[in-house]
Amino acid sequence: MPVAIITGASKGLGRALAEALAARGWDLVLDARGAEALEETAAGLAGYGVRVVPLPGDVTDAGHRSWLVAAARELGGVDLLVHNASALGAEPLVRLAELPIEGLRRALEVNLVAALGLVQEALPELRRSAVGAVVTVSSDAAAEAYETWGGYGASKAALDQLTAVLGVEEPGLRVWAVDPGDMATGLYAAAVPDDDGPRPDPVSVVPAFLWLLEERPASGRYGAPALLEGVR
Questions:
Q1: Residue 48 in 3-state DSSP?
Q2: Run means of pLDDT, 10 residues per run, the chain, 232 residues
Q3: CB 82 within 8 A of CB 129
């Protein structure tokens, strides 16, 4: 069975990806900070007959990252690493003039530094895999200037660049940054609590991620909405 590590897997896009992979026979190592929600997610995947290891913790903790990779190694290795865990920097979002510097540091630590730390920890296993792939979850805020999204967007823009360089340095892997587009997630609700407009369920963008895994296009940055047009 192929093995995937998914961070931020207790809800939203991470949970939707976990369910889709479990349905396709993937064994999973799942991370999230909330132990109870993560256990509920793992229990919900039991019916697929795959092995699921829920490991609550903070991806900024080097020991926790090592724990995630060690658990995947016990399942057989690491074929896919999905860095989905994200921090906003401020909840709700604020303009740069009011953005707490500690909040920006937190966003960079979760969204960028932890991503590289986990990649470094998992690289030996990914290189051994015949289908080794890394997915980093980006945002349109990484490419567009949206008011109040400056700190979060900057961290995601840096993550995009890190992902692009990793793809050049590791030609034997597939390395994709994926902008999932607008979604109804807890992260968005925390970012802009006054915006209660309708948004797509994260489940709706999962086919774009599955297409990447099945078709294995060149490493690079992809927008899920554009990929979905091709899938349909």
A1: helix
A2: 97 97 98 97 96 98 98 98 98 98 98 98 98 98 97 98 98 98 94 92 97 98 93 61
A3: no
Closest CA to 6 of 73, 78, 63: 78
Q: Largest Cα–Cα distance of the chain, in whole Å?
A: 50
Q: Which residues contact 83 (CB under 8 A, 6 or more apart)?
A: 7, 59, 114, 115, 118, 119, 134, 135, 136, 137, 159
Q: Are 92 and 17 in contact (CB under 8 A)?
A: no
Q: Which residues are catalytic?
A: 152
Give which of 81, 168, 82 is closest to 126, Cα–Cα.
81
> Residue for token digits 């896919």?
80
pTM of the model: 0.96
With CA atoms as reference, report the closest residue to 179 among 223, 135, 227, 230: 223
